[in-house]
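Input chain follows. Return structure tokens only.
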Amino acid sequence: QVEIVESGGGLVQPGGSLNLSCSASGIGPNIYAWAWYRQVPGRQRELVASVGLNGRTNYQNSVKGRFTISMDNAKNSAFLQMNKLEPQDTAMYYCVLGALYWGQGTQVTVSS
């Protein structure tokens, strides 16, 4: 059974940084596509960043230049480095493996 676990969320002041981590278990070593989504209560989940099988990355316009997605397929892990955080980045962040397996989410709150 595949399990996705996120970590690294928390409370940070505007302008601060967080590094989210995502670890997958129950899968074999391989190259996977990864993505990070976020959701605010009452709103739809939105794609924040993704990295494809070819390593190509894609970002939501609002996070370009501030967030960086990366992966370590040898460790079945992905990361989201978030810099210059803004209050509107506050959300539950979800890691997705292969566009199929979702984690339970990690809360990010940006507030002074």
